[in-house]
Automatic annotation (TrEMBL):
<feature type="binding site">
    <location>
        <position position="70"/>
    </location>
    <ligand>
        <name>ATP</name>
    </ligand>
</feature>
<feature type="domain" description="Protein kinase">
    <location>
        <begin position="41"/>
        <end position="298"/>
    </location>
</feature>
<comment type="similarity">
    <text>Belongs to the protein kinase superfamily.</text>
</comment>
<dbReference type="InterPro" id="IPR011009">
    <property type="entry name" value="Kinase-like_dom_sf"/>
</dbReference>
<dbReference type="GO" id="GO:0030154">
    <property type="term" value="P:cell differentiation"/>
</dbReference>
<dbReference type="GO" id="GO:0000226">
    <property type="term" value="P:microtubule cytoskeleton organization"/>
</dbReference>
<dbReference type="GO" id="GO:0005737">
    <property type="term" value="C:cytoplasm"/>
</dbReference>
<keyword id="KW-0832">Ubl conjugation</keyword>
<keyword id="KW-0479">Metal-binding</keyword>
<dbReference type="Pfam" id="PF00069">
    <property type="entry name" value="Pkinase"/>
</dbReference>
<keyword id="KW-0418">Kinase</keyword>
<dbReference type="GO" id="GO:0000287">
    <property type="term" value="F:magnesium ion binding"/>
</dbReference>
<dbReference type="InterPro" id="IPR047908">
    <property type="entry name" value="TSSK4_cat"/>
</dbReference>
<keyword id="KW-0221">Differentiation</keyword>
<dbReference type="InterPro" id="IPR008271">
    <property type="entry name" value="Ser/Thr_kinase_AS"/>
</dbReference>
<dbReference type="InterPro" id="IPR017441">
    <property type="entry name" value="Protein_kinase_ATP_BS"/>
</dbReference>
<feature type="region of interest" description="Disordered">
    <location>
        <begin position="1"/>
        <end position="30"/>
    </location>
</feature>
Length: 394
């Protein structure tokens, strides 16, 4: 029987060792990339969650930085939001670019979800700072209010009104600069025509920040209502609480139609109180942005604002702490408008077990920040009944 020399067997053995045959490996399918992964985004931790949307941090290969991804479930989101407000939000933010606005980067729509990719503000919201520090000193308040003023003025000059300005929607970047976010109730094409300012009849926003004309349910100038909300934000910064109690509609309406009152503590300068009073005023006498910009309190030289390093407990917050759990009482009468809040848009839905898993999703379309002004379209149904309760925002 012929034998094979050992020297001839050695190359064969080496070849088998270098290229092992594994039938299981051949049958194992390659891992399918998620929709976001195909666009270069690797999802990370959750930084916010609501009834029908979740916000996660993601690492972006395209932008070489961290971004925020808002994930909206089509199964859980209200029909009005999907058909009206979400397309309008994307349409509006695509054309905005300002240092004090959260920058829109990309929107991706799939069969089950809509992903909105935005600039990530890693230092939370103004509300977080107020809750930590109990109130904001006038030096920081002046700087941040000026930044808010510049952001809102930029929007108004381009015919965009925000209609939901509040502390939760003012985010902080790495240098603690204000970034106005959440244009879910925003509307474009609102520039005055022939000297006549267009009126809005969608009564939306948050009760505690809503202007008297919105609460009365009459057509209003949205630019002036944005300014009112800015006044509420300034009050909340320097006092650490909201100026108006939104737990009862009748009481709230009475308060906003009277001159604003100030608590004894903390101590706030008279020029600051005067500015707040002139902003939280009836629409006919309410200050315009051009006047606010030159207000004596606001033009004081400002040092770079630094957040405090004290570690104050959230449990020690004054009025502001428990407000998020307060429900609004709106009597069932035709004379009282139902304010369209984000909470009121939420619908009860039977498919409560649908999560935000990203597997096996097929992209339908993609909207780039630099693309044409084509909004997301689709056939969505309003599922369930609206929930009319609202919670206080600070």
């Amino acid at each position: 029987m012929a034998t094979v020399p050992v020297t001839e067997l050695k190359p064969t053995l080496e070849k088998q060792q270098n290229n092992p045959v594994n039938e299981k490996d051949e049958d194992k399918p390659e891992k399918k990339l998620t929709v976001l992964e195909t666009h270069g985004y690797a999802l990370g931790r959750t930084v916010g969650a609501g009834s029908y949307a979740t916000v996660k941090v993601a690492k972006s290969d395209r932008h070489n930085c961290q971004v925020a991804v808002k994930i909206v479930s089509k199964f859980q989101a209200p029909g009005d939001y999907l058909k009206k407000f979400l397309p309008r939000e994307i349409e509006v933010v695509k054309g905005l670019k300002h240092s004090n606005l959260i920058r829109f980067l990309q929107a991706i729509e799939t069969t089950h979800r809509v992903y909105i990719v935005m600039e990530y503000a890693q230092n939370g919201s103004l509300l977080d700072v107020i809750r930590r520090d109990m109130f904001i000193d006038e030096t920081r308040s002046r700087r941040w209010f000026r930044q808010l003023l510049e952001a809102v003025d930029y929007c108004h000059e381009r015919g965009v009104v925000h209609r939901d300005i509040k502390c939760e929607n003012l985010l902080m970047d790495k240098d603690f600069n204000i970034k106005l976010s959440d244009f879910g109730f925003a509307r474009g094409h609102m520039k005055p025509k022939n000297g006549i300012a267009p009126l809005s009849e969608t009564f939306c926003g948050s009760y505690a920040y809503a202007s008297p004309e919105i609460l009365r349910g009459i057509p209003y100038q949205p630019q002036m209502s944005d300014i009112w909300s800015m006044g509420v934000v300034l009050f909340a910064m320097v006092y650490g609480r909201l100026p108006f109690d939104d737990s009862n509609y009748a009481q709230l309406l009475k308060q906003v139609q009277n001159k604003v009152t100030f608590p004894k503590d903390p101590k706030v300068s008279q020029p600051c109180r005067v500015l707040i009073t002139r902003i939280l005023a009836p629409q006919r006498t309410r200050l315009r942005i051009a006047i606010i910009r030159n207000d004596p309190w606001l033009i004081v030289a400002v040092a770079i604002a630094q957040t405090s390093t004290t570690d104050k407990s959230v449990d020690n917050i004054p009025t502001i702490s428990t407000a998020t759990e307060t429900k609004v009482f709106v009597p069932e009468t035709p004379d009282i408008p139902k304010l369209l809040t984000k909470e009121a848009l939420v619908t009860k839905h039977q498919d409560t077990n649908i999560g935000i898993g990203l597997e096996n999703e097929l992209p339908i379309k993609e909207i780039q920040a630099h693309s044409s002004s084509k909004s997301i379209e689709g056939n969505y149904e309003n599922r369930g009944k609206k929930r009319t309760e609202n919670r206080r925002n600070l």
